[in-house]
Write a structure and sequence with these properties.
By secondary structure, the protein is an alpha+beta fold. It is built from 9 helices and 15 strands. It has helices at 11-42, 58-86, 122-127, 216-224, 238-241, 247-255, 298-306, 314-319, 330-342; strands at 94-101, 104-110, 116-120, 133-137, 142-148, 153-157, 162-166, 172-176, 182-188, 194-195, 202-203, 209-214, 282-287, 290-295, 311-313.
Length: 344
């Protein structure tokens, strides 16, 4: 374990326990070894050819019972205090569901109600040429709910000094706060099998991932785009690039949670179509069970915002159903329409 730095709020305390127990162990090792050498020399047979009777010593017996007991209980108390704090959940912490399976980690972000927001899956990320990472905001409490779909795994982030088993049929958790920007490796610390099938070596040794800790603003953009935009790579949403020209519509959509399902950068999601370039185009919708073709103009957008249940995108009608209705003021609706009209 690399103790050069710690990247979570518990790292320093866990390091203190580690080094404290190590110091006690080193002192005992040196003391016991020195005592053994001295006893071998002091009571060697050539120095004591005739054995002598050694009477009992109540003081010595009490000493070698009480002193080790104090040391052991002291180390236990020192470690237990940190462990007890590790098991405390922080109210209002951001929740991410982490699922281990042979041989990958999947991350599902959920909203305040515990409903699925979006998922980061290694297979899907690989198709896009990306690496599946758990992206977390700096200095914000996080709770990882851990589960397994097959065998025992163990989610281990050395830089955080945190490790927790994932158990089939049972949910475990980790609660902590990231305190350092960067990318930190994730390992499986529980042997979970392996195979050489499918033309490649898969197994416990290849169950690797990473935690990326980013600024609060970078995470907000990443989260609101459902993982589609990664600003730490220089990516920006179209809304941010044109914010000076039309900020109010984007702010309203962001405040109302529109970017949970939609994006404004041309990237489609599983929950809703992108809004980039939608204005002026034709689209197929389901209206009263009948498929129709409509042109996206101001009238259509107003109808879609105020009464989303009337007309739904043909593709997403089958996938997720109609968009939920959101109560907006007349000025909010107008701002959104103006923004979408300029979103080329």
């Amino acid at each position: 374990m690399n103790l050069a730095f710690g990247a979570s709020n518990y790292a320093d305390r866990i390091d203190a326990v580690f080094w404290g127990i190590t110091a006690v162990s080193v002192v005992l090792l040196i003391g016991i070894t020195a005592a053994m050498v001295w006893f071998v020399w002091r009571y060697h047979r050539s120095r004591r050819p005739r054995p002598e009777h050694v009477p009992d010593s109540m003081g010595l017996e009490l000493a070698w019972t009480i002193i080790p007991t104090i040391l052991v209980m002291g180390m236990f108390w020192f470690g237990w205090k940190v462990f007890a704090d590790l098991r405390k959940k922080t109210p209002g912490a951001m929740v991410v569901n982490v699922t281990g399976s042979q041989w990958q980690w999947r991350y599902m972000y959920v909203d305040e109600k515990g409903q699925r927001r979006f998922e980061v899956a290694p297979d899907e990320e690989e198709k896009k040429g990306e690496t599946a990472e758990l992206v977390l905001p700096l200095n914000k409490p996080v709770q990882l709910n851990l589960a397994s779909t097959d065998v025992l795994h163990s989610f281990y982030v050395p830089a955080f000094r945190l490790k927790e088993d994932t158990v089939p049929g049972r949910e475990t958790y980790l609660a902590f706060t990231p305190t350092m920007l960067g990318v930190f490796p994730v390992f499986c610390a529980e042997y979970c099998g392996g195979t050489g099938t499918r033309g490649k070596l898969d197994g416990h040794w290849s169950m690797l991932s990473a935690v990326r800790v980013v600024t609060e603003e970078e995470f907000r953009i990443y989260y609101e785009s459902n993982g589609a935009v990664r600003p730490w790579r220089g990516q920006k949403t179209a809304a941010l690039e044109g914010a000076a020209a039309m900020p109010r519509g984007w702010e309203t959509m962001s405040r109302q949670g529109c970017f949970r399902c939609h994006t404004d950068n041309g990237v489609e999601t599983k929950d809703g179509p992108t809004l980039k370039g939608i204005y002026g185009r034709e689209r197929r919708v389901v209206r009263a069970g009948i498929v129709a073709t409509v042109r996206v103009d101001e009238e259509y957008l107003r109808r879609a915002i105020e009464h989303p249940e009337v007309e739904t995108s043909e593709v997403y009608f089958r996938k997720v159903g109609p968009m939920p209705r959101v109560e907006l003021s007349e000025s909010d609706v107008t701002d959104i329409i103006r923004y979408l009209r300029e979103l080329k």
